[in-house]
Write a structure and sequence with these properties.
Blueprint (H helix, E strand, L loop, with lengths): L4 E3 L4 H7 L4 E4 L5 H6 L7 E4 L9 E4 L2 E5 L4 H6 L1 H6 L1 H8 L4 H6 L2 H7 L6 H7 L3 E4 L3 E3 H4 E3 L2 E2 L7 E7 L3 E8 L6 E10 L2 E7 L6 E2 L1 H9 L3 H5 L16 H20 L2
Parallel strand pairs: 1-3, 2-3
Antiparallel strand pairs: 4-5, 5-10, 6-7, 6-10, 8-9, 11-12, 12-13, 13-14
Length: 264
């Protein structure tokens, strides 16, 4: 690992002031620190957000579950408020990584990193969430812009994410057994505005699957989802599965997600 300066500010203003020059925010560190250990990432300064109390916390208010950016996956998984409001989101958080990752990794860090196989981005898109930052609100549909890329500007800090409470929702993933990242992950949400389906693990960034949304808006059933044949164009192909395999598995995972949503 390269050497670096470490700072742990106590509030947002101090964090912003510390982010000067070649510096990066440090949330849970479950991706960034590993990349630094492998010398795949280098920064002269890390600004640890762990000491900023008002970046944590979970509440349900006016039809939304609002989760602070520094809330850990374990926090979300254990929250009775989240389980009552959006059980699918609590279950998603409980299926991320292993106990160490869940107790260290954070919601804000996960979506800012924008790993193409991460789980939280699927929830942000499928639920039509809004990402609150130190400067503005960003609609979930505009937040993820590419491979490890987001709409965040330099120095912009995620403070919370607001998830609208759906009528029904579920997330199902076919996971890589070692990392527990999604080889294919599908989040299905039935909302007042229609069905939204988000897919992770299959392209360079999370994406919505319109053919599945159309089919499920017509008939919200597992059979309708399974009957959709998605093209393999643009789908990842690697040692874990071909593009054709992943494309077929998207419909299978969507079908299972619908069945789980209907069973609640």
């Amino acid at each position: 690992m390269y050497s670096f300066d470490y700072q742990r500010p106590a509030d947002r203003a101090a964090a912003s002031a510390a982010l000067q020059g070649d510096a990066r925010y440090l949330a849970g560190g479950q991706s960034l620190v590993q990349a630094m250990k492998l010398r795949l990432s280098q920064s002269q300064r890390l600004v640890d957000l762990g000491g900023i109390a008002d970046l944590r916390g979970i509440r349900v208010d006016s039809g939304n579950a609002i989760i602070g950016a520094m809330s850990t996956h374990a926090d979300v998984a254990a929250s009775t408020d989240v389980r009552r409001a959006i059980a699918a989101l609590a279950e998603l958080a409980g299926g991320i990584g292993d106990p160490m990752v869940r107790n260290m990794g954070t919601l804000g860090g996960a979506i800012a990193n924008a790993d193409p196989a991460a789980c939280y981005p699927a929830a942000v898109l499928a639920l039509g969430a809004t990402v609150q930052t130190s400067k503005r609100s960003i609609a979930g549909d505009q937040f993820f812009t590419g491979l490890y890329e987001t709409a965040l500007n330099p120095g912009e800090l995620i403070t919370a994410v607001s998830f609208p409470i759906p009528q029904k929702a579920a997330y199902v993933k076919f996971k890589q057994p070692a990392s527990r990242f999604a080889l294919v992950g599908v989040f299905v949400a039935k909302t007042a505005g229609g069905v939204r389906v988000a897919v992770t693990g299959c392209k360079s960034s999370v994406f919505r699957a319109k053919p599945l949304e159309d089919a499920l808006n017509a008939s919200f059933t597992p059979e309708a989802a399974k009957g959709v044949k998605l093209p393999a164009t643009g789908i990842n192909s690697d040692m874990h599965g071909s593009a054709e395999y992943r494309a077929a598995m998207i419909s299978v995972m969507a079908s299972r997600a619908v069945a789980a949503a209907l069973a609640r």
